[in-house]
Write a structure and sequence with these properties.
With 200 residues, the protein is α+β, with helices and mostly antiparallel strands. The strands form 3 sheets. Strands 1, 2, 3, 4, 7, 8 and 10 form a 7-stranded antiparallel β-sheet that branches. The longest helix is centred in the N-terminal third of the chain and has 18 residues.
């Protein structure tokens, strides 16, 4: 092989080596800035609006009565307690979907291990019924569809029924256990939790 050919081949091999190993060979290039800006995360906040109220409805009565002092109230089988609270849910986020829910543990024995407290709490928890904005159930899903700050009202009504004729089939003897029982309602609260928005 001629010396000239050998020299060309050697130069070509060196060029390929430089390209393959990210050498200093300069190639034409250009760049352009993309249009951008600042993005901001949305929010989800919950706040009570006004003072919640309690009412009691006696067996056979059609209209509940206001309860002004819950601690002084003494309930009996046949009574129905009605809690009403108003809340405001503040939301920002185009694809935000969230659920308003009654927090668990709303009805608990006031004194741990006390048989009367435990029985009364079981009875009221068993028959508790919930509505959010007039819709039955413990949850209500609201979907935010734009970036603007929005507020959603949530009116919560919880009914605690101690039926005179217990539909759960408990005997009078079991209801007797609840005499002088105390139940804590201090944990009545509402939560707002983000859920994954459906594709539809």
């Amino acid at each position: 092989m001629k010396k000239t050919t050998k020299a060309v081949l050697a130069a070509g091999a060196g060029l390929a080596l430089l390209i393959g190993t990210g050498g200093t060979l300069a190639l034409w290039n250009s760049s352009s800035e993309l249009a951008g800006g600042t993005i901001t995360a949305g929010t989800l906040q919950l706040a009570a609006s006004g003072t919640p109220t309690w009412q009691i409805q006696r067996a056979g009565a059609t209209t509940p009565e206001a309860v002004t002092d819950l601690a002084a109230l003494r309930i009996v089988p046949g009574d129905k307690l009605i809690y009403t609270g108003n809340f405001t849910i503040a939301a920002e986020g185009r694809n935000l979907s969230f659920r308003a829910n009654i927090a668990p543990g709303a009805i608990t024995p006031a004194r741990a291990g006390n048989a009367a407290d435990t029985r009364l709490a079981q009875q009221l928890d068993l028959t508790a019924a919930y509505t959010i904005n007039g819709v039955a159930g413990q949850t209500a899903t609201i979907t935010q569809t734009n970036d603007a700050a929005s507020s959603y009202p949530a009116r919560i009504v919880v009914t605690l029924d101690w039926p005179f004729d217990d539909p759960a089939g408990s005997s009078a003897a079991q209801d007797n256990v609840a005499k002088q029982g105390q139940v804590s309602l201090a944990n009545f609260s509402l939560t707002a939790t983000q859920v994954q928005r459906s594709a539809t």
